[in-house]
């Protein structure tokens, strides 16, 4: 019997373990941290051996194959030793992809992945397509396959870490939204390594497949000059007219595909803002490729509700608006959030810095932010960057205190924006917990 070791017992790891067990593998799950009780129970019920708080290297090195959680860096000694022993280390998506006949729409990019994934899933569902959503959002792909789900299409949000562990897997429709510096600490601070990681989205594509990408992204445009792709290329842009792809005018989004044109009035799109226009363009192109009727595309792009923790309006308290953008874990996401703001901003930021260059935000911050509240265990870099640029800067290590400080600092018509530009792991389990605590604190005002 083939032995599979799963490293990391989160949603993707446990999903992979359940699927592997079902497919006749001898499975062992190892997590250096604590495994949530719910997952422990699932593994026990399935008769899968597991350990927590340590890694038994003798068992791990006896594996025929290893499925690694995206959160575990390739640079740690154990992973290096697995490579040295020529034991394949793959991602849950790579493993799960072997056991489904469904076609895939795969979305990556530094920003906008979740929104675009949810939007495409919503659009297809409204059109009556048999579709499920997985990857970096919701229930893992492996778990859904183990549960017997057999859709026509899987819409998958893929991070660079997931793509790094994918080799044979192929996207039938690949979408690359943008590439901006992010997670560089995982790529030896090499931008090219990060770009290469993102471009794995098109690996193994053939002439029958489709690549949808943002033509306005300079890094993508430059990289495409150095690559020969077999797939059908469908760009989208806000800076010109395209015969094939999507573009925007002053008041319309226009999609041209195979001699058919469809137009949508920009004001009718449920997702507003420049960055969201790109997300709607990508989704619209996919819908046209799948021959969804224009009327349905228009209705879906107008009625979609956005992703939680992404520019999510929480409440207005005495004329002060509170917006939860906890999912903004990098500079570019926060840039988009600040760019959307039309009223004075009290900005709550901070957390685990991933090699941020705050200079990119400077112009927007000077123009829009009146108070900066630094929420983190180490705010030195934030303080240094914005000292003298924002008239009032405060520090705290508590979300409740941050919200109260923001409320006291705000006036009617101001916006309190939680858009951290950093990972959450210093004070919170993840960006979801951070966002939920923000919402709870706002409701307690």
TrEMBL record:
One record GO biological process: peptidoglycan biosynthetic process
EC primary class: ligase
Reactions listed under catalytic activity: UDP-N-acetyl-alpha-D-muramoyl-L-alanine + D-glutamate + ATP = UDP-N-acetyl-alpha-D-muramoyl-L-alanyl-D-glutamate + ADP + phosphate + H(+)
Record PANTHER family: UDP-N-ACETYLMURAMOYLALANINE--D-GLUTAMATE LIGASE
UniProt-recorded Gene Ontology molecular function terms: ATP binding; UDP-N-acetylmuramoylalanine-D-glutamate ligase activity
Task performed by this protein: Cell wall formation. Catalyzes the addition of glutamate to the nucleotide precursor UDP-N-acetylmuramoyl-L-alanine (UMA).
Residues of the Mur ligase central domain: 107-286
Superkingdom of the organism of origin: Bacteria
Protein name: UDP-N-acetylmuramoylalanine--D-glutamate ligase
Signal peptide feature range: none
Ranges for domain Mur ligase C-terminal: 309-422
Residues annotated to bind ATP: 109-115
A single Gene Ontology CC term: cytoplasm
Main subcellular localisation: cytoplasm
Family classification: Belongs to the MurCDEF family.
EC number: 6.3.2.9
Organism for this UniProt entry: Carboxylicivirga sediminis
Pathway: Cell wall biogenesis; peptidoglycan biosynthesis
Cell location: Cytoplasm
